[in-house]
Amino acid sequence: MTDKSQNNDSVPTAEELRRQVEETRSELGETVEALAAKADIKAQAQQKAAKVKTQVQDKAAHALHVAHDKTPEPVREKAAHARQELTERAHTLGAKIHDTTPEPVREKAGRTAQFARGNRARLIAGAIALTVILVVGRKRRST
Fold first, then answer.
1. What is the pTM of this model?
2. Closest CA to 19 of 34, 29, 5
């Protein structure tokens, strides 16, 4: 902080002191904001995750574009036709299952599906644990 008054020997006026105080406050505020931004690890991680997500999406789009360009038109047409046919068959089968399934069973299945959507992480962890138990049990029986 330098004294910007005209004469180095003179005492700064009240106005000059106020101006210097305001400048110092402004500089201090900017410094605090910069330090807070550096200390905000969560925000930095979110920015990095967003950047990586964008990069992955760009690479996936590029790979899809390259695969599309390298796939002959007849193959793409057959794949599109097969997808449409499978979709139609799945809808038809779903309608038949819905029509032949008793109402209490449909209600129970709906509640189970809703529970599964709400507890996906627990169900995955349980499935992994069950798989590990089954694999270890098979290995023990085979030895």
1. 0.37
2. 5
